[in-house]
Fold these 3 entries.
Entry 1:
Amino acid sequence: EDQVTQSPEALRLQEGESSSLNCSYTVSGLRGLFWYRQDPGKGPEFLFTLYSAGEEKEKERLKATLTKKESFLHITAPKPEDSATYLCAVQLETSGSRLTFGEGTQLTVNP
Amino acid sequence: NAGVTQTPKFQVLKTGQSMTLQCAQDMNHEYMSWYRQDPGMGLRLIHYSVGAGITDQGEVPNGYNVSRSTTEDFPLRLLSAAPSQTSVYFCASRPRRSSYEQYFGPGTRLTVT
């Protein structure tokens, strides 16, 4: 069964303490991997799309990378406003429009 | 642009009642989808539409109906609510087949007692 696993489930950082979130997938025929940010009580907000191993995307303090079996979301010198749940999702060549989402990593950045 | 809007924000239903969750987008997006989000389960696709008049089932379609008569609107109907349908429902849209930059609405929190 195709699976998307995110780790850790929750992460607490001090402001300025860099770290990484992981998204691993046991799927074949990956068409794309997507990262979203979700704030409490709101819908997910699109961050990045990655299509092939070795690809990297950056946005402010966030950088997403992709290997053949996992993706990392690196957070450099985080600020309290980076606190949110980060979701990853995969789309397969055989799944048409369907995305399979992971359960997310809840990030808290303390001032 | 308002983006993707959903109504209501909160709803409490009794088992067996029916209702419609509304979703509208003003970005002229072809694709629209409905997801439910449950603790420990992640977001799961209920139904989706690739354009007006075209809908298809997602991962968890049972108990829900959809229709797409216009590009802008994509309502989700609960036919006979059950406690298992207690969840947060999100509508999403995206502009074309090759783009997965989805825009999500703010969600509807539904409780079925």
Entry 2:
Amino acid sequence: GQNIDQPTEMTATEGAIVQINCTYQTSGFNGLFWYQQHAGEAPTFLSYNVLDGLEEKGRFSSFLSRSKGYSYLLLKELQMKDSASYLCAVRDSTGGSYIPTFGRGTSLIVHP
Amino acid sequence: DGGITQSPKYLFRKEGQNVTLSCEQNLNHDAMYWYRQDPGQGLRLIYYSQIVNDFQKGDIAEGYSVSREKKESFPLTVTSAQKNPTAFYLCASSTGQTSYEQYFGPGTRLTVT
């Protein structure tokens, strides 16, 4: 299985930039996902990385380094509505199962 | 509108009772999943199904059962054998096991007293 680690909580100021890190250990890496989840709601897909490098999508970017087992989600121009939990999930192809395993999530609090 | 629905949003049951959570999707997705989420925890996989009439246990299947008689539907039964059933339950679907992303339903918050 995978061992996924991300910070429990982070705080940032409206308009600032925040980087949420995720480290993982897996034997058959097959992709890394980031999801956003507001309290009591369903997770929504943000990004998918399978190759090394940076994927940019509007205010959100996601980076992957497979050799380091490391990813980060970068949120720019923070808005109050970005206050949410951010889930890192890693997919492993070992054994033929491609089901992503989720980390515990990082609760981001954006304050004025 | 295509989507994935779960009902009800909130569910209350007495200890010792079985309860079934509904999950329906009209996205024509082959794969469906059930996750459990506890406060401060990530999503933990209960069961998943890649195709009709077939399903596999996830990491925490004990005390749960599922069926997949139709492509659109993947109900989850929380049995009285589940020792700690109070949680937020999320259903998801995807085009296939190796698909790009999972689509999640709004979730059902189950409280057992």
Entry 3:
Amino acid sequence: ETGVTQTPRHLVMGMTNKKSLKCEQHLGHNAMYWYKQSAKKPLELMFVYNFKEQTENNSVPSRFSPECPNSSHLFLHLHTLQPEDSALYLCASSPDWIKQFFGPGTRLTVL
Amino acid sequence: LAKITQPISMDSYEGQEVNITCSHNNIATNDYITWYQQFPSQGPRFIIQGYKTKVTNEVASLFIPADRKSSTLSLPRVSLSDTAVYYCLVFDSNYQLIWGAGTKLIIKP
């Protein structure tokens, strides 16, 4: 257990659905991250929040929309996804930008 | 933009020392190099961080030469449970996080 939880752990959705991924940490960390991990590809950093403010958006398509209502919660809203968006979505938090604590991930399948 | 290269896979045997090297050019001069371990169906887990020379903790050592163009993760006396994917992570000169593609380490009995 890293102290970072993610729900749901598995999600299957159609291309016209809207769903949200949730990440929660009570470690007191100020930085939170969303990553995408596809088979045979490096971890892709999607979004970074520092003190609830988005500081990075690495050219992520607008069908992915992050939300950080407070320093303990992070959401990733999904809409009109494509099959190539199927992947493991990982949330992480960090106290110092060096050591990141990852959640178990949400395995997303887009049909 | 920094480019990271690490071996795709490695095999070793229980009780051996394993060294995994990550090559990284054009990285930030004043930031840490970190290594993570990932098991299937789990998020990566922090192993060790270093800035230069050698760092050792209870699970691994990290060797970083003076030019910081590479780093070597050393796992002493590995066991079957060390079978995992190992990633190095650096900041590039623009302070962007750059992950290596990962090294799949397989430990055999």
